[in-house]
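Researcher: Before we compare anything, I want clean individual predictions. No alignment, no superposition, just each chain on its own. First chain goes here; please echo the sequence and then give the structure tokens.
Model: Echoing the first chain and its structure:
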Amino acid sequence: MPMYDYACGDCGEFAALRPLAQWREPADCPQCGAASGRIIGGAPAISALSSTVNRARAVNERSANEPRSSRSGHGMNCGCCSGGRASGKTRTTPDGAKSFAGARPWMISH
């Protein structure tokens, strides 16, 4: 059940746990018992979350516009950092045909 904020005319603001189906209905004030209307009290308590959740949220926010690469150097298939070695298992013959080193030629891949 979510917690909603209410304001009593005599006692002030209070919070109450209410079912979703009752979000529009007024709640009884815990001090005087008067029906009190719902208000938008403040922002959600994000600081009350665990440190793990806060870290995960911060990583998600950061990665939305600043993706972090897990590779060092210039990235995949960089000619200056690869050392001249062919990448992967694909081999190209002088006539342009491709073969796959160590692959089984009779298998069909998807």
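Researcher: Okay. Second chain, same rules.
Model: Second chain and its structure:
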Amino acid sequence: MIGVDTNIIVRLLTRDDEQPFLKAKAIFSKEQIFIADTVILETEWVLRFAYGLKPDEIRMALTKLLGLPNVHVNAPETLSSVLRLYQKGLDFADAMHLAASLRHDAFLTVDKTLIRRSKDLTRCRVKEP
């Protein structure tokens, strides 16, 4: 199994440069791939800020990518929760923070937007300290 960096994933998803796209496609077609949580987080950021993709476009691209049979991640259930929370309007990083905390009683933050947007999305209460 090999790990891949954000730039490989971005080339694959955007096909913005043909040669790097073909290399990324070849890697994903023949290797068992590990994608770290940090790479997924950075990929969302790059797709949003550098490429101007909308959250639904990013979510669909990541869902397809993470659904490939040869793609492996640390915690598939957590990433599934991340994508669900992202679809419901949470910022991607906030969705990652909250999804990683779902087994806990509460997630503390001073981010009022996160508190408001996450209301009733999970059993984990998001609240101010």
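Researcher: What stands out in the second chain?
Model: The chain has a mean pLDDT of 95. Additionally, Strands lie at 2-3, 33-34, 71-72, 106-108, 125-127.
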